[in-house]
Amino acid sequence: AMSSFHEMDDPASPSQLKAEAAFLIRHHSDQLRSIALSPDPNLHYPLHIEFAELMDDDPPLAQSLFSQPTDHLRLFDDAALWAHEIVLGDLKLKGHKSVVEKKFIHVRVNISGSPLECPGTFPRIGSVRVKHRGILLTLKGTVIRSGAIKMYEGERWYMCQKCKHKFLVYPELEARNSISLPSYCPSLVEDNISGGSNNRMVSYIFMV
Q: Where would I find the H helices in the chain?
């Protein structure tokens, strides 16, 4: 049955999850069986799908994946776990005793041979712009150097050493994740207290 317009607007609707799980079982049961028969339950397992195949099977779902990849890739992971449970139960009924339940299955989309192989969705790395934000893109290139993995912080908690006031500071990503601490404790501003020389804060404690 074709999904309704409102259901397509809601990525987390049960019909969407069911449609994605059904697609995985119809076209990728071999991968699901291989994952179920793998012995290590702690590994993260990829499940590769073809965008062209999804486009032929369920065009509205493929369009939703293209236009809302953040939501639908996450939903596809949930659908993969649901499909895994179904395949797992089927294998147990058939007498397979070596099957192991998995908790980490991630869908990976291959766009080769699909309409996504066009300049608008397959830009050169140096051509990626703000207009590309929020849609499914494919980037290809050669890694010529790799360094240590660095985590980008979204926020930091600090505490004023004088008054023990706690406050958030947001690193500036454009300035290499640098932190700019205020000259005065934010509590002075919140309490509408004018800052004099006695109120100047000279040190803060970073709270992990």
A: 5-9, 14-37, 51-57, 59-67, 69-93, 186-190
Q: Residue ranges of the alpha helices (H) in 51-163?
A: 51-57, 59-67, 69-93
CATH of the domain at 39: 3.30.1640.10
State pLDDT tens for residues 53-105: 999 999 988 888 888 888 888 899 999 999 999 999 999 999 888 899 999 99
Question: pLDDT below 50 — which residues of the chain?
Answer: 1-9, 193-202
Q: What is the count of structural domains for the chain?
A: 2
Residue with the two structure tokens 């004088």? 162
Determine, yes or no, domain membership for 31: yes
Identify the residue whose tokens are 């590309």.
Answer: 132
